[in-house]
Amino acid sequence: MMKATVTALALSLALVAACSQEDATPLEPDAVPALTPAETGEPLDKAGTSETIGGDGSNIQLLPITADTDLDVEGELGCSFQTEPDNALLFVAKANVGDEFRPRGGINNNGYAETLTGVETGGFSALETEGGKFGGKGMTLTLTPNEKRVNDGTETVSHSADLLVQRADGAERTYQGVWTCGP
Fold this sequence. Notes:
By secondary structure, the protein is an alpha+beta fold.
């Protein structure tokens, strides 16, 4: 049941973010869109991400979260991080409403679903406005919301954001994208 809820949240936030883009261009009737890395499940290595710096020399590879990613993230309300311009869903997080709650997040770490826990309390309100730092198996993720985006008339709130991924061996990589939160 929880897997279905996380998957539904992630996919609905991704759909809202994709539908609210201002610069979307209509397709020609006979045009067939090319698959993006997010749709093919291939590693991302586009503009908007940095190369892995430091560590043992191996790359940090966050793969897109799909319906098949087995994440178990609990909470009442949620947020998602998608890269730009390819809209790959790399991080989802949920939290309960009260300030005493810690958020929980999930990633697809090179093919392995991993759950992370927020290092600070603050509930959904802090998750939505501040992002936060999350720890897990040998990794720390820091989500930093930047400039708020124009509201599309829904309860969904979006910010430009940076996702810093740090591994225990000192390696780090930054992804740039959009942090979208809502019911």
